[in-house]
Amino acid sequence: MKNKINYLLWVLVLGAFIAIGFWILEPNKVFDVKPTKIKATNISEHEAFEHTIHDMLHHNKKVWSNIQTLCANNSEIFFWYSQEACSTCTDSALTYLYVYAKSVKNAKRIVIITPETDKKQIEYFSRRYDNLLKFVDSKGVWDKYLSKFNTITAIFFVVDSKLNITDPYIFEIDNEKENQLYFKKIGILP
Amino acid sequence: MNFMNIKQLSLLFILAICLQACKKEKNQGTTAVENKVEKNLPFEIDEPLNNENFDSILQKDKIIKLETNKNSLISSISKIEFYNNKIYVIDALNEYSVTCFDINGKFKFKLKKIGRGPDEYINFNDANINMASGDIELLGRKKILIYDSLGNFKKIIKLPYNADKFCSLSEIRFFYKNFTIEGPGQAGSFRLYSINSDGVVKKYLKFDSDGNGEALYGVCNFTRVNNAEYRFSERFNDTIYKISPQGIRSFYKIDFLGYENKRPKDFLSNQKKYPDKTKFAINMAIPKVSGFYEFGNSIIGFYTKYSQRYECVYPYIFDKKTNKMVQNQNRSYNLGLELILLVPDFKINKNPCAHISPSTIYNFIENQKNPEYKKKIKAYFEYDDNINTNPYIIVYKPIKINEK
To answer: Among A149, B178, B196, B321, which residue has the least CB neighbours within 10 Å?
Structure first.
């Protein structure tokens, strides 16, 4: 009899784990999120990604000259997003940057490269984040270089004072853990 | 394994069963909306009606200029709410803020808490003033953030689904989601849901098919009739709903005269058959209501008419007493202005109000050839030649339509 009860309890326990498993695996009801398949994981991919960013920055002479001026003395953190990036994703990334810029004394300068070209709209974006983030427009460049990777819609990277590109990163709103590790690495999070 | 462990695991099992039960609760079907139309509203949109001049129906009472300073500057206006002699300007588009002014336009405070803290938000889709409590309620991602009428944080209410717009009554809140797909592989089968103070969720306005149809973005509206009643309208749906503490029900049915049989019955709910509704509406010249505001016996708003692949938006004034459209023209004869920007969409006390930016007034003046009109426009808006100030609020006198 005791064996039978034990057996029954084991079945119940197994059932519980299966039920919990199903519950955990239930996909979140979140829209606007696209999974990224391409990641700069190995060295050659990483270098290729840096090279692409380099080409993107050099594509427009005006933008490059602007970046040279911005990075003359300090390294700058860059966030570049495409027209296709979901607003929730970009708002999330920008909030990380804004919180950092607002709360850290002598914070690194942050440059946002936006597909938006309307000056008034850029002014509104800037005002939203109390003018702590610098917005630069660069229409069409993203489409020329990164539109083939339709899963990549927003990237981070750092440009140092020697104009070297370091720490490229593909931002995805759902990769909260990876995002936080990256932000710690570049000093956005403590 | 000792007995204690087995007991704990059994409790775990019961918990898991409860969680599964909750999940099933969430997936329950939709509740039918009570179909009890109070009135059919015949909308004449082909014959120009201008017997009643727009300016004579909507007579200006006064202009309120919202104070402009470094802290009070407004980027854009999604909605204006009035409560307890305070004007709340909601910007859910550019700055994600709620700016509060007194009834004379003097700046009181700005609620803008972008951040990652418990009382902060990344952005918000919509905001309301709860007329029962005076609280400022912001609709964030699967949550409502509640601040008191002075902008101090009170609490968060978690939501089961994302939403784009909402309205708050004392006991119940209604939410509208424009997207038919909830997430990857998850079909959303309804457009509207409500949550009462006990957390009971009800879903309404189902989709008959789950195809990934066109997002109905930005085309629904909850408009306040009084402190305990809203109207709800959505694009391509000719039924206007009444929302009250008792729930939701069909209230008005708009009949576009001459267009009665143009719209297929399943046009709105069949996402597979009509994935691109705008394209279909243009091809079939199906009109729609794009704004519905009720002020006493008058209904004011916009309708959209499609012709030759163009979308044209016109203002209208409908008289409930005579059950007739009285104005469907786009121009003011008195000022020579496009009326579309002068349509009232909120109330200060019982007066209908509209808002207009100084840059629009400037453009109005610049585009006029007639110097008399230029003078008139400038005087009407009390324009002070400063293009960079906050928007002006036009307060109209209570509406009176002459019965003929």
So the answer is: B321
Give the minimum alpha-carbon distance from B100 to chain A in angstroms, rounded to a whole number: 17
- B-chain CB neighbours of A30 within 8 Å are 162, 182-183
Structure tokens at B289: 């209501």
Q: How many angstroms separate the CA of residue A73 from the nearest CA in chain B?
A: 29
Confidence of residue B403 (pLDDT cuts 50, 70, 90): low
Element (H, E) at B265: none
Of B47, B51, B404, B401, nearest in space to B256 by CA: B47
Query: For B214-228, b where at least 16 C-beta lie within 10 A, e where not — what string?
Result: bebeebbbbbbbeee
Nearest CA in chain B to A121: B94
Q: How many CB atoms lie within 10 A of CB B302?
A: 19
Does the interface predicted TM-score (ipTM) exceed 0.90?
no
Q: Which residues contact B202 (CB under 8 A, 6 or more apart)?
A: B31, B193, B194, B247
Span of A25-39, A56-70, B250-264, B321-335 with lowest mean pLDDT: A25-39
pLDDT average, residue stretch B323-328: 89
8 Å CB contact of A127 and B181: no
- DSSP assignment string, B162-227: --SEEEE-SSEEEEE---SEEETTEE--EEEEEEETT--EEEEEE-SB-------TT-EEEEEEET
